Amino acid sequence: MFYEPKKNNHGLPYNPFKSCVIPRPIGWISTLSPEGVPNLAPFSQFQNLTFDPPYVMFSSNYTMDAKRKDSVVNAESTGEFVWNMATYDLREAVNISASFFPPEVDEFEEAGLEKLASNFVKPWRVKGSPVHFECKYHSTLRLPGNGPMGTVDVVIGEVIGVHIDDNYITDEGKIDVLKARPIARIGYLDYTSIESIFTMKVPEDRIFSGGMEGRPETNVAKRA
Ligand SMILES: Cc1cc2nc3c(=O)[nH]c(=O)nc-3n(C[C@H](O)[C@H](O)[C@H](O)COP(=O)(O)O)c2cc1C
């Protein structure tokens, strides 16, 4: 089949677009309102962008009344946000934190989550999440779209601090991904979680594979 997104002429009962680029990791983004109220929301349009220095982005569509979402307002006005790894064990809290709450509501409390203080930024970290990034707001790329929700804010932040729970580091010194079991969106109302891993190495390429693996002789780790 072939369809044009502009015409939405796929003929299927559900729009397939969000089920094509998958799995999408979840940017579970914690911010503080300018008044200091904790805010938390998941964004599956999320990625890391680069590693030296590391930058991440989350992409937030406008609300139904064509306004920026609270996470964007907060990140832009305070200059900070925290990314929390969303895991299978925390899936219900992730879901609750997607509900619409007014900015004066503490979404950690609504989701039944405990807070951990950050080292460099003010937004809280989710207790129980095995990995957190403390981020300094860099910029917003605003893309025009159709309808009130079409406009999207791609919020970019520099990662200035990384927390990894020691209980999720293997004897080999790697993040224990199978233990953490991060969840990801696969479109519709469906999710997946990481339950298997396979390994590959680029043939005959020491430096590139070293960079991919994060070995010390690559420039990022050497400086650290
Ligand atoms: C798993 C999941 C992924 C989501 N991904 C996005 C996304 O990528 N972009 C977006 O605008 N909203 C996304 N949402 C909806 C937001 O989480 C929701 O609008 C939330 O209320 C925004 O909170 P805020 O207004 O406090 O920023 C997602 C919801 C769920 C459950």
- Annotated CATH architecture of the largest domain: Roll
- Helical residue percent? 10-25%
As a whole number of angstroms, the C-alpha radius of gyration is 19 Å
Overall 3D form: globular
* Range of strand content: 25-35%
Count helical runs: 7
In CATH, the topology of the largest domain is named Pnp Oxidase, Chain A
Biggest β-sheet, characterized? 7 strands, antiparallel
Count of beta strands: 12
Strand order in the largest sheet: 3-2-6-9-10-5-4
Low-confidence stretches: none
Q: How do the helices and strands follow one another from N- to C-terminus? A: EEEEEHEHHEEEHEHEEHH
Query: What is the CA-CA span between the terminal residues?
Result: 49 Å
Considering the protein shown, what is the CATH homologous superfamily of the largest domain? Electron Transport, Fmn-binding Protein, Chain A
Structural summary, described in words:
This protein has 2 domains: 22-193, Electron Transport, Fmn-binding Protein, Chain A (Pnp Oxidase, Chain A, Roll); 199-224, no CATH class. The protein has a 7-stranded antiparallel beta sheet, with helices on one face. A 3-stranded antiparallel beta sheet has the order 1-11-12, with no helix packed on it. A two-stranded antiparallel sheet has the order 7-8. Helices cover 18% and strands 31% of the residues. By secondary structure, it is α+β, with helices and mostly antiparallel strands. It has helices spanning 70-78, 91-96, 107-110, 147-150, 177-180, 206-213, 219-223, and strands spanning 24-25, 27-32, 38-43, 46-51, 54-61, 80-84, 115-116, 125-126, 131-143, 152-164, 183-185, 191-193. The structure holds flavin mononucleotide. Flavin mononucleotide (FMN) is lined by residues 26, 39, 41-45, 59-61, 69-71, 95, 98, 100, 185.
